[in-house]
Design brief:
α3 packs antiparallel against α4. This protein has a domain of 56 residues. 76% of the residues lie in helices and 0% in strands. The relative contact order is 0.11. It is an all-alpha fold. The model has no long low-confidence stretch (mean pLDDT 86). The protein contains four helices and no strands.
């Protein structure tokens, strides 16, 4: 490993709090993407909708630059709806 060492340590229960703090610091910079991620983790029906759309779009648009843009545009309406749902109070 080019001079570096991999050190494995026992689990430290403080890690959960440290990761929560890191997530709180990073989330504002991610904007709606962090809210979308968290929303999808809690809502399996929306995961299914999102997955089905992404699969259909992947079949429709191929992996060259212009198609990627059309792919992103085509899924933007659902993404915006899911981010809005994630932003509403529970």
């Amino acid at each position: 490993m080019d001079g570096r060492q991999l050190v494995v340590t026992e689990y430290d229960p403080r890690w959960a709090g440290q990761f929560d703090e890191l997530r709180r610091r990073i989330a504002p910079r991610l904007g709606g993407l962090a809210r979308l991620r968290d929303h999808l983790r809690r809502n399996p029906d929306d995961v299914r909708r999102y997955s089905e759309l992404k699969t259909a779009l992947a079949r429709r648009f191929h992996a060259h630059d212009e198609a990627r843009l059309r792919y992103a545009e085509a899924k933007s309406t659902l993404v915006e709806q899911l981010i809005a749902a994630a932003s509403r109070p529970a």
